[in-house]
Amino acid sequence: MSGPITTEVRDGILIVTSNNPPVNALGAAVRQGLAAAIDQLERDDEIKAAVIRCEGRTFFAGADITEFGKPPVEPMLPQVIDRIEASSKPVVAAIHGTALGGGLEVTLGCHYRVAVPSAKLGVPEVKLGLLPGAGGTQRLPRIAGIEAAAEMCATGNPISAAKAQQVGLVDKIAEEGRLLEDALEFAKGVIGVEPRRSREVPVHGDPAFIQKFATENAKKFRGFDAPAANLRCVQAAVELPFDQGIAFERQEFMKLMMGTQSAAQRHIFFAERQAAKIDGIPEDIKLRDIKRVGVIGAGTMGGGISMNFLQAGIPVTIVEAAQENLDRGVGVIRKNYDASAAKGRFKSEQVDQYMGALTPTLKLEDLADCDLIIEAIYENMDVKKETFAKLDKIAKPGAILASNTSYLNIDEIAASTSRPQDVLGMHFFSPANVMKLLEVVRGAKTAPDVLATAMAIGKKIGKVAVVAGVCYGFIGNRMLMPRQVEANKLLMEGATPEQIDRVHVEFGMPMGPFQMSDLAGVDIGWHRDPNRIENVRDALCAKGRWGQKTGKGFYDYDEKRRPTPSPEVQAIIDEFAAKEGTKKREISDQEIVERTLYTMVNEGALILEEGIAQRASDIDVVWIYGYGWPVYRGGPMLWADHEGADKIVTGLEKHGFKVAKLLKEKAETKGRFNRPV
Ligand code: 3H9
Prior knowledge:
2-enoyl-CoA Hydratase, Chain A, domain 1, alpha/beta, binds (S)-3-Hydroxyhexanoyl-CoA, 677 residues, 28 helices, N-(1-d-carboxylethyl)-l-norvaline Dehydrogenase, domain 2, Rossmann fold, 6-stranded mixed sheet, 48% helix, 8-stranded mixed sheet
């Protein structure tokens, strides 16, 4: 047998092996090979049982997502799984790595499952806007019970082998390194026994759990179609005979597959992986060794940045100018770790280990042995230049010097050193130990290996790193600007903060621009002179309306931080509008979309034109992971593709905006920013 599936008979047991790197996705050739292997099992009287296993780093990681949207090739996965299940001889799955999606469904077609302790089992389809469409929603409640099935299907989170054994999804835990031997032994033990077919096992567990779980997670599932569809299918498993349940699952699967949400979520799956690739730099470029990291500034950002490296096992030297600030910063890191430990996220020994790898100091000179130094002080070009000039004299040759600036010109910062090739931006998002986005800003002189090393270290600390070019605000914050400008103008023209925020929340953003301002602090960047009142923001700050921290900002907050619209704010807005002579009118929700979201797309198009982002999908990744753009809308540029560039151009022109050349081009040619997936 050629192709990714090979077979071998050992002691009357057929060993079916898949070798389809990198993740043993269940593409057409794999499915054909599996079907042929089952034929062989049935045909050959000398063979009494089969073990299905995979070579490489993982068991089948699911259907081949790259085949979605293309003409189907027989046999389809559900058919293959049915054939495995129908086999008259027992079939055992031998699981290592991750058995995901269609991969787990293959194991559910098998009659027994053996897994190594490090294996993970899950049905992550919901994260692609889908559901397990090869019988998973019907077989899982039969094997693992309603509770585990509902939770696994609706969240997509995998479970450990131990947990899987506990719920009945794994029959035996193999010894690490002896998976095949243990699976063969298990298979020997069930030879001659009537195979246990998942479809024949009664669904068990508490059906009321499904609704309860949906209610408890309503906030998390808001806006998404797939979690509810997954739960409907588990419910169908409870209510319908197996074959009818399968028909229902197919119908729900196809609805999701044809919809825009799954297209958006699949787009993001590939976009995230594509973002790691740097145009023009070979993937095998030699990286610089990062054994110790230096962080300048022990404030909120510096502390959060340090935590990432400590957790990845990389020691950190953290520098502050004053002892008091250093102590406070280190204290906050400790407090954050203790809080996580209390929630069970870390063991206390881990916390000790992380804190033990942190070296606090007041001396910049102590950074001399660091391989990567990240400056995380406040946004002032002169101070940053001065710091980098000092670093230039201290850092060892070849050390990477990074600035965490959110806006400033990396080339100007680099020019204050004698080694601009070693300088770049590493823009983390607050809270830096939580937010997954890292913008890596490539200066005009940044060396290729420096850029590649920063991207790789980003991955190592669990970030999704995206390359950005030098401009004010890079990708994310630059696109935020037109949105803010328009939101402020809309206030003058008659919209309220509540209306604008509501439109954004209904769109799927975690909060609107004014809620965000209240959370971050209305006073950020304020000139601090209460007598100088030039706009609404100045007026709010002068009245102590600094946002949630002072109990009032664009909204009034009660002691539980619940917002209510503020008559005082409305009066300030009205006063400014009157002063400017802006005539108030009714503003439609659609106008808010056009002026605050279409303008972001327009800015995104400019960013692409100028080469600030390598590709449209990188912009989408920035907005998903840095700003909470709803993943089911796939980021601003994929959303633009779904909305239609022509509609966006019409909307922008209606309000007198200058439309980016690239966006116009897309509208005229009916083109897209992203390839469809
Ligand atoms: C499904 O199963 C539907 C069925 O229920 C119903 C059918 C009827 N297909 O992530 P990595 C590529 S839906 C194609 O960097 P890691 C990936 O793009 C599927 N390609 O590795 C990347 O390519 P490149 C349900 C795939 O070690 C390369 O493999 N399953 C697939 O960090 C390496 O990936 C899932 O959703 C795929 N299924 O993580 C699981 N998966 O090198 C999705 C990966 O060109 N996969 N690739 O950029 C994962 O979660 C992770 O890849 C995994 C490995 C944890 C397996």
